[in-house]
Amino acid sequence: MKISRKDVEYIAHLARLEVDDLLVDKFADQISNILEYIDKLKDADVSGAELMSGAAFQNNVMREDIVKVSPGPDVTLSDAPERDEDFYVVPRVVG
Amino acid sequence: MQYEPVIGLEVHAQLKTETKIFCGCSTKFGAPPNANTCPVCTGMPGVLPVLNKKAVTFAIKSAIATNCTIARESRFDRKNYFYPDLPKGYQISQYAYPIAEHGHLSIEIEEGLEKIIGITRIHMEEDAGKLIHEPRRDRSMVDLNRTGVPLVEIVSEPDIRSPAEAAAYLKKLHAILRYIDVCDGNMEQGSFRCDANISLRPLGEEKFGTRTELKNLNSFKHVEKAIQYEIQRQAYILDEGKNVIQETRLWDPAKNITKSMRGKEDAHDYRYFPDPDLVPLIVDDEWINSVKADMPELPDEKKMRFIKEYALTDYDAAVLTSSRELADYFEETAKKISDKKLAANWIMGPVMGLVKSEGNAIETLPVSSASLGELLQLLENNTINANGAKIVFEKLVNSDQSPASLVKDMGLEQVSDQSELEGVVDEILEANPAELNSYREGKTKLFSFFMGQIMKKTKGKADPKIITELLKKKL
Q1: A90 — contact with chain B (CB < 8 Å)?
Q2: Does B458 lie in the same domain as B427?
Q3: What EC number(s) has UniProt assigned to this enzyme (chain A) (predicted)?
Q4: Do the chains contact at B33 and A85, CB–CB below 8 Å?
Q5: For residue B41, what is the nearest residue in chain A, using CA coordinates?
Q6: For testing the chain A interface, which of B140, B182, B264 should be mutated: the one with the most A CBs within 10 Å?
Q7: B289, B306, B327: which is the final residue of a domain?
Q8: Count of the separate structural domains present in chain A
Q9: A76 touches B at CB < 8 Å
């Protein structure tokens, strides 16, 4: 699968990454190579193999609905870049 | 041109669990900012989400109540987008394999006429946090207490054709979720939220038109008004020969309009993929059957039973079963008297009036079903008349006394003594010779004048049946 410059720019935007214009072509080539390599998997014979959804061979890992004391704002906000009392502060998000 | 609106609704209902869907933080509303947070719900590296079993049971319950097929195996996916209310950068949801599909519920579109609205799917997901925008500052505040609170999203088929049908569907779904006690239904606090997808097509056309999605519909009234507005807006655009733009629009309840939410359009590539931290969820027959065994009577079943058991009209039964609490209030009251219609009338009249004027919920009403039942007993056995019952009812609002003792204290016992009333009737007829003459000359309307005079004389305590008979005889 061939990845274009436009694809790279779009993926970068979705991931909120800034990509140096000079590197876009390089990334397009690299991502294309990775995808082409993965395409090789299509050649493998998987007839008779069962569909797998995860690496863990178990289902239904659950907990009971019992409250645990939360560590609260002091732990949650300890690495916050900016805070005001017990709120995170972020740049204004709506007009 | 004549257009047909095509409407589908997405409801997000907060499940009434004690803890969040993937961690043990409390779901209690109104806690101080970020008090109910931990490394799991704030998306710290290296933590593992563990599914809340109760949330699954509640989702199964919702699925059964809406006639859905429950998936034996369902899975959780990551829905990726950036927003400050979503600390992980993705929301855990169910995309490819939801817990339930292919349901329906029926709504009444006019008296006695039902319509089936299909339910596409129900899936489980976690809620996002809350943003507080400071009006005069260039910043927003983030509170993550709501992050990770369990939700079910219930998606309808595009079967709805009018604002009224949309409201009827929502009210029905709201009542059902409250009946089965999985959601408190509080729309102001956001426990029951609705988005609407709306498009128009020329009448008779099969193909759907371009749709818009409406957000911020936080009351039944707003849902109806917003859809009404959006239908008119789209019809206007189409009549001008222009195209409706597919976009998300926000309802502005202050101005009664919908506004485009610019800037969100290109965020709709969510790149869903299976969440590797969560294993498949398997729901077996045993689990489904144990939830079924625990199901309460649903609104439609209760309505049919009320019609049969209490000989109520379709309309009365529908009103009285609109919430579980109201239905219970009616049954508790009606238990004490033989005329069930009397209980229905009193509850749908004075009681509901009181609920409205006091802004109260029926369960916290100052007049309990027990004391209303007792009051209606006194009315039914002729201790008091309807007029006296009304006076006592009003007193009950601010009194701890029983209806019987209030009747005694206020001297409201009905006068049913034949000879005593006969004297009053004679007295009134004598005192009003002109009216008596007119009546006898054919002005029969004056009958109510005499009734009124007698009631006044007896301070409203006369048995109306007896004085009617007496008057008829004497006139």
Answers
A1: yes
A2: yes
A3: 6.3.5.-
A4: yes
A5: A76
A6: B140
A7: B289
A8: 1
A9: yes
Confidence band of B369 (pLDDT split at 50, 70, 90): confident
The ipTM, to two decimals, is 0.82
Same domain membership, residue B278 and residue B147: yes
> What 8-state DSSP symbol labels residue B454?
H
Q: How many domains does chain B have?
A: 3
Rg (CA), chain B: 29
Of residues B52, B278, B282, nearest to A65 (C-beta)? B52
Contacts of A87 in chain B (CB under 8 A): 33-34, 132, 141-143
Q: Does residue A58 lie in a domain region?
A: no
E-strand ranges in B352-431 read none
Q: Do B140 and A90 touch (CB under 8 A)?
A: yes
**CB contact B74 to A (< 8 Å):** no
Same domain (yes/no): B184, B318: no
Does one domain contain both B428 and B283? no
**Domain of B279, in residue numbers:** 3-289
Q: Does some domain include residue A22?
A: yes
Mean pLDDT throughout B2-25? Answer: 96
Query: To the nearest whole number, what is the mean pLDDT of chain B?
Result: 87
The whole-model pTM stands at 0.82
Residues of B whose CB is below 8 A from A89: 139-142
For B85-118, give one letter per residue: b (16+ CB within 10 A) or e: bbbbebbbbbbebbbbbebebebbeeeeeebebb
Q: Does A78 touch chain B (CB under 8 A)?
A: no
The answer to whether the CB atoms of A84 and B36 lie below 8 A apart is no
> Of B289, B309, B332, which residue sits at a domain end?
B289
Sort B287 into a burial class: Cβ within 10 Å, 0-12 / 13-18 / 19+: middle
Å from B282 to nearest chain A CA?
6
Distance CA B127, CA B149 (A): 5
Domain that holds residue A9: 5-43
pLDDT of residue B355: 81
Confidence of residue B348 (pLDDT cuts 50, 70, 90): confident
Rounded Cα distance, B265 and B384, in Å: 67
Interface touch A92/B75, C-beta < 8 Å: no
Which of B93 and B362 is assigned the larger pLDDT? B93
Are B282 and A73 in contact (CB < 8 Å)?
A: no
**Residue located via tokens 């969100």:** B264
Tell me the per-residue pLDDT of B38-68, one tens digit each, with 9 for 90 and over.
Answer: 999 999 999 999 999 999 999 999 999 999 9
Tens digit of pLDDT for each residue in B287-296?
Answer: 999 999 999 9
